[in-house]
Design brief:
single chain, 4 helices, 117 residues
Length: 117
């Protein structure tokens, strides 16, 4: 058994490495997705169909998609959540002002006149 021992001149000196290791692969969100999910996340048509149909439930698709920049993901998220929150409030106020109040006023005037509707 012939053992070869290399003495180093200083404690910080390392022996030469024969070949450099390859650089690590870039880590992306979609790297862990199955191929079918990658196809869904990469399709603009599917993403916009889900967002326009189901609203905020489609937001994870746009955040997993590598095709959109960060600023566009934030913009779509803010707009989607804004419409989801503001639209029901606006419809409620509209229905209250133009549908329910006239009926309540008519009932109040009828009761004041001595009869009920």
């Amino acid at each position: 058994m012939s053992g070869h021992t290399e003495l180093l001149d200083s404690p910080h000196q390392l022996p030469a490495v024969s070949s450099p290791s390859p650089p690590p692969a870039p880590v992306t969100i979609e790297a862990g997705l199955p191929p079918a999910a990658r196809a869904i996340v990469s399709s603009h048509v599917v993403i916009w169909t889900v967002i326009l149909t189901f609203g905020p439930l489609g937001l994870p698709l746009i955040w997993l998609s590598p095709k959109y920049a960060l600023w566009s993901k934030i913009l779509v998220t803010v707009l989607t959540l804004g419409v989801t929150i503001v639209l029901p409030i606006a419809v409620t106020i509209y229905c209250s002002q133009f549908l329910i109040h006239p009926v309540l006023d008519a009932m109040h005037h009828a009761n004041a006149a001595g009869g009920a509707i």
